[in-house]
Design brief:
The protein is mainly α and 334 residues long. It is built from 16 helices and 2 strands.
């Protein structure tokens, strides 16, 4: 996991620090009428012209950061006036808990990022609360009697929901429930300032959950249909057990092994979903923050968001592997 994080962080760091991005940063931090030489001097003074390994090492926190100084007077000149940057040579990077300075929000990344993560965590929590039970129920009902009218109806609904991306369902839900019917608020901005409520939080949750429900339901239905044809299920039926008892006591637990992995893999997908949903509903969480950072060439904030995304993907993969081995006795024995 550490090696994967290091490699992916190095790739993201390389692309974010390409020449056009550095030039835009220099223009933003100096003035629009600054000459090319002035821009080049700013980049050299603040270490952006150092070799890639040194800059990456400073960001990680294994190479000391040197304060920028005025070439004429030798006075310390911080890169950004609105951040408390080091005034002496010292280690100040990711390993030390310093993610840099946000040029878009004019504050440190450490102050801005936790607020966005908390807001997105609340959104993800309610999405999972809605998505997991509904999708499992649909999948189990469809897989119990493969090929029945109920199975076909639920399968069509699942496929339709999975085929509808968030930017389509979000617009449709807003037009129907906010504009036409007036039941719900088409913006979730008040969920941050005034608190989460049914009026301002239902549409974002619906938009994100509707896509995942269809995918998990299809996987659960396939797993349930396979389990229902197993020999031990036929043996239980021949012993006189009721159909409901066979499903609950014998089929359900084994049928949920594969969907568990799929459910855990929804967390990385939710990160990509929140970028679209939070932008549509103006919900200022992690996805909205990432869009703002990328739009405003906020290099340190983009790097921090990339690192958080990689960490979440790796952690969910680890939990998925451990949970799968715990649920499946054959994996534990092997």
């Amino acid at each position: 996991m550490l090696l994967t994080m290091l490699c992916l962080s190095a790739v993201v760091f390389m692309f974010v620090n390409l020449e056009p991005n550095l030039r835009k940063l220099a223009i933003f931090q100096t003035e629009m009428r600054a000459s090319d030489q002035d821009l080049e001097n700013w980049l050299q003074r603040n270490g952006y012209r150092d070799n890639y390994a040194a800059r990456f090492g400073r960001w990680i926190g294994v190479w000391p950061k040197e304060p920028a100084r005025d070439p004429a007077t030798g006075a310390i000149m911080p890169r950004f006036r609105y951040c408390d940057e080091p005034t002496e040579s010292r280690l100040a990077g990711v390993l030390q808990g310093d993610f840099g300075c946000s040029t878009a929000f004019r504050t440190t990344v450490n102050q801005r990022l936790p607020e966005a993560l908390k807001a997105t965590g609340i959104l993800m929590f309610w999405v999972m609360i809605v998505m997991v039970p509904v999708s499992l129920l649909i999948g189990v009902l469809a897989g119990m009697r493969e090929g029945s009218r109920l199975d076909r109806s639920l399968s069509v609904a699942s496929i339709a929901s999975t085929a509808t991306p968030e930017y389509v369902s979000g617009v449709i839900f807003t037009a129907v429930f906010a504009s036409w019917l007036g039941w719900l608020n088409g913006s979730a901005a008040t969920a941050i300032t005034k608190g989460v409520s049914f009026n301002n939080f239902t549409l974002p949750v619906m938009t994100m959950a509707i896509y995942g429900i269809g995918y998990i339901a299809r996987m659960t239905r396939a797993s349930m249909a396979e389990v229902m044809t197993a020999q031990y299920i036929r043996t239980a039926r021949l012993k006189g057990l009721s159909f409901g008892g066979v499903v609950v006591k014998h089929a359900l637990r084994n049928a949920l092994i594969a969907p568990f992995t799929v459910i855990m893999l929804q967390f990385p997908w939710l990160l990509t979903g929140v970028v679209v949903v939070e932008s549509i509903f103006n919900y200022k969480g992690f996805g909205w923050l990432l869009v703002q950072a990328a739009s405003n060439n906020d290099i340190d904030l983009v790097l921090a968001c990339g690192l958080i995304s990689v960490l979440l993907v790796l952690l969910t993969q680890l939990i998925s592997d451990i949970g799968y081995a715990f649920l499946n006795p054959r994996i534990r024995v092997a």
